[in-house]
User: Which sequence fits this backbone?
């Protein structure tokens, strides 16, 4: 089995806010990320798929196909968008790095031909990232 | 598409990197001068040398339904400031308590950082990885 990783970047705005809490509680838990005007990041996405090497093509997956799937399923929805306001899954859950990794997994799982999704890694910044392996 | 049960909290891994600069000298009294030079090469320079270390710590846990987080990042940063950066940044590792009688190789430094972050109460530590230079990195997990 071979693991193959494709990287992509998207730039998005977000904020952290829980409507069930008072403004003070939001401020205490989320700090400066609770600013309702939002802020943004250049996210780096790494998608790792696992599969067998096709004896004829020598590929696990066709990278053109993988790139197109990432574009269609993730980048076209997330890039240059406000995650809280414009991406449906974040209407009800905070767009933290952890939840972005989980959401991208859910968007991609089962959509990559000939390979199995192995890991979704999302860097919010070079010094902060989350991994999701599909574990319930 | 994987659909988690409505009440489950999926398990994710959060990694945070901290940067610190420190000096060290690789040397053991158990070896002769010649053996130290042969084993540690230029790292045995009596005056020491230094690195910009990158310490990467990984925590695993269910993503809290309310906060969307594995652990409170502010709490983790404060813990790292007190227990890692304040103790090791801009220091000579050989002079510090954890390296009394222990060579401050990055292997040993990685295990010491693991012992430190194991104590973080907010989430379960699964891995420590330290980059000594962009060409050398060391990982430890139990």
Assistant:
């Amino acid at each position: 089995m071979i693991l193959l990783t494709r990287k992509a970047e998207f730039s998005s705005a977000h904020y952290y806010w829980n409507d069930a809490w008072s403004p003070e509680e939001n401020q205490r838990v989320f700090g400066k990320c609770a600013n309702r005007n939002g802020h943004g990041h250049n996210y780096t996405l790494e998608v790792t798929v696992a599969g067998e090497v096709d004896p004829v093509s020598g590929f696990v997956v066709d990278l053109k196909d993988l790139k197109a799937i990432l574009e269609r399923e993730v980048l076209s929805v997330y890039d240059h968008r406000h995650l809280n306001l414009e991406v449906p899954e974040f209407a009800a859950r905070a767009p933290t790095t952890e939840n972005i990794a989980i959401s991208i997994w859910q968007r991609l799982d089962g959509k990559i031909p000939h390979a199995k999704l192995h890991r979704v890694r999302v860097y919010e910044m070079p010094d902060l990232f989350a991994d999701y392996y599909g574990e319930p | 598409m994987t659909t988690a049960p409505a009440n489950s909290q999926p398990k994710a891994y959060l990694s945070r990197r901290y940067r610190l600069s420190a000096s060290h000298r690789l040397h053991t009294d158990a070896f002769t001068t010649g053996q130290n030079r042969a084993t540690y090469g230029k790292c045995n320079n009596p005056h020491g040398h230094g690195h910009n270390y990158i310490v990467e710590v990984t925590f695993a846990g269910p993503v809290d339904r309310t906060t969307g987080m594995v652990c409170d990042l502010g709490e983790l940063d404060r813990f790292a400031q007190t227990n890692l950066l304040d103790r090791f940044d801009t220091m000579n590792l050989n002079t510090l308590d954890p390296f009394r009688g222990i060579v401050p190789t990055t292997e040993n430094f990685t295990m010491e950082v693991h012992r430190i972050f194991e104590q973080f109460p907010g989430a379960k530590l699964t891995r420590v990885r330290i980059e000594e230079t962009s060409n050398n990195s060391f990982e430890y997990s139990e």
